[in-house]
Amino acid sequence: MIRIDQLTYRYPGAEKDAIQINELLIPAGKFCLVIGESGSGKSTLLRLINGLVPHFTGGTLGGQISVAGLDPVKSGPQMMSRQVGFVFQEVENQFVVDIVEDEIAFSMEQAAIPRSEMQTRVKQILRKLNLENLKTRKVDSLSGGEIQRIAIAAALVLEPKILVLDEPTSQLDPLAAEEVLILLKQLQQDLGLTIVMSEQRLDRVLAYADMVVILSPDGQLREVGLPQAVIQKCALKPPIVQLAEKRGWFPVPLDVEQARKFNQDEKFESREKTSFEITSQALIEVQHVHVNLGKCVVLKDIDFSLHAQERLVLMGPNGAGKSTLLRTLLGLIAPNQGEILFKGKKIEFEHTAELSYNIGYLPQDPNALLFSETVQQELETTLRNHQIPVQTKSLEHLLTQLNIQTKASAYPRDLSTGEKQRVALGAVVVTHPEIIILDEPTRGLDQQTKNALLELLLEWNQNGKTILLVTHEVEFAAAFASRILILEDGQIISQGDPRKIMRTHPRYTTQIARLYPETDWLTLNDLPW
């Protein structure tokens, strides 16, 4: 079990505590979900469990924490790794070696486990997690879902009693995320594991949890208890829970399956289907583009246009080629065949600097855009690089829009993942580009921040911006998109009106659409109240 008593922790140089928890008990064998706004201390709490904080961060720790009978501070991360397996939020950064079976064996080598036992354990964990076909693959060749499963295997091979995961589904498509969550629940039941997991996408994970911990924005324990009770006191409710509150359903359903018993007798007529039509100018035209990376065929005969003031959402499974397509649009990757036009002019490979005046691009990893000493300097540097005068009031307004105005003097790389995402977005849009291209912009964001981002993007779109974004968040896509394009196995398999696309491709549909399949409803706003 995990027991916390009067625990406080403050990072070096910080003015206030990152975590303040008076009392918390996580019983052995439970699946505990930790939720809260970006920057509320979720990752800090998880790292306290295995001793990474404060051993690798320094800082000031008060109170007591006991994990499986050990003090993580006294024991240290090496000893705690026998009790606590850990999967990081940016999971690709925790891999050390190139080959899957070597990566799984690495922690056992550090623990001086005999080679014969290592071989046995690797075989067992590969079989347990259904990864035997991947054992000789290179890690960098795996899909997002496969990478998460390998990270879980590497964390479990030392046979810990506790598995800690920091937003393990944040980079996964809906099907891959579901597979990982089903796997975790199975491991909990089969091995008696205690699982502690932070997550922002509550519509995915809430029904799997046995208990929920809510942290307040200042790192205090706000609520703890059973999911049905705690979620009603939470501002981060998924659509099904919000609907249940409106309808008075009790006990509160946590997913679509639980909600179906309440809506069986509801009868609603679907509105007339909306027609899909584009009449504005094509800003970007992609004409029969093929892209190979080495010997791998990544994109095949891609043909579509991005129109002025459109809100185009690109969806598809991990490894489908979405990020490669975005990089190709920007001239970062040269197509092997076909061409891309911007306002009728062919985009030339490696002419990205010229395009950046008209096209703002936020990559999947925000760290790729963060180089300055403070958040405000990040925006100022971008303006200077484009030879645009720095206007302090405009910068303050943008920081307020992104809800990072209090972080203006902070070092960007010390921020939470969600905060870094917003800083990078600010650096992208501060030059007011005509087209905004975003690769997984909701990664690491809590629901309140996602809602604020949605409103901000819609406002920018109303003011003339054209926006293309990639996301695995079906709820966000449904609320934002004017058109959805589905990419699978490097090919466009479907594109059109969101109501049609999400009905014909259940993998990419919302909770409301699944609950009311006979209608064309996608979000709560579509329902007749």
CATH topology of the largest domain: Rossmann fold
The CATH class label of the largest domain is: Alpha Beta
- Main sheet record: 6 strands, mixed
Mean pLDDT: 91
The side-by-side strand order for the widest beta sheet comes to 5-6-7-3-8-9
Structural class: alpha/beta
Q: How many strands?
A: 19
**Spatial extent as radius of gyration:** 24 Å
* The number of domains: 2
Percent of residues in helices: 25-40%
* Broad shape: globular
Q: Give the CATH H-level superfamily of the largest domain.
A: P-loop containing nucleotide triphosphate hydrolases
Q: For the terminal residues, how far apart are their CA atoms?
A: 45 Å
Low-confidence stretches: none
Percentage of β-strand residues:
15-25%
Total DSSP helices: 20
List the helices and strands and how they pair.
Layout: E1 2-10, E2 19-26, E3 31-36, H1 42-50, H2 52-55, E4 60-67, H3 72-80, E5 84-87, H4 100-110, H5 115-128, H6 144-156, E6 162-166, H7 174-191, E7 194-198, H8 202-205, E8 211-215, E9 221-225, H9 227-230, H10 239-247, H11 256-259, E10 282-293, E11 296-307, E12 311-315, H12 322-329, E13 337-342, E14 345-346, H13 352-355, E15 359-362, H14 375-385, H15 392-401, H16 417-429, E16 435-439, H17 447-462, E17 466-470, H18 474-480, E18 483-488, E19 491-496, H19 498-504, H20 511-515
Parallel strand pairs: 3-7, 3-8, 5-6, 6-7, 12-17, 12-18, 15-16, 16-17
Antiparallel strand pairs: 1-2, 1-4, 8-9, 10-11, 10-13, 13-14, 18-19
Helix pairs in contact: 4-5, 4-6, 6-7, 14-16
